[in-house]
Write a structure and sequence with these properties.
The protein is an all-beta fold. The protein contains no helices and eleven strands.
Amino acid sequence: QVQLVESGGGLVQPGGSLRLSCAASGRTFGMGWFRKAPGKEREFVAGISGSGRATTYADFVKGRFTISKDNAKNMLYLQMTSLNPEDTAVYSCAATRSSVVGPKTVFETWGQGTQVTVSS
């Protein structure tokens, strides 16, 4: 089973940017980013197909976040811009065997997560 390791989290000021990375130990198909804030349920952020040609975003990140995938390097990325305090959460990447990726997709493999804190 593939293993996923996230990196790139940290403290950023409101309006700032961060790029999260997710390193996979092997080949992956569909992948996604999720986040969990304290006191809230985990929520879908963005998803990408195995080829990288199809992407899906939660409404609250559209226009601000971009998900991308480098299959040659087994890497997944999440470029985050215009960050606000409501984006503070632990962000996790996940992998699925499904060719269709969205909020309802079942993801079989999860990373441990990386903390993103947006604060002045």
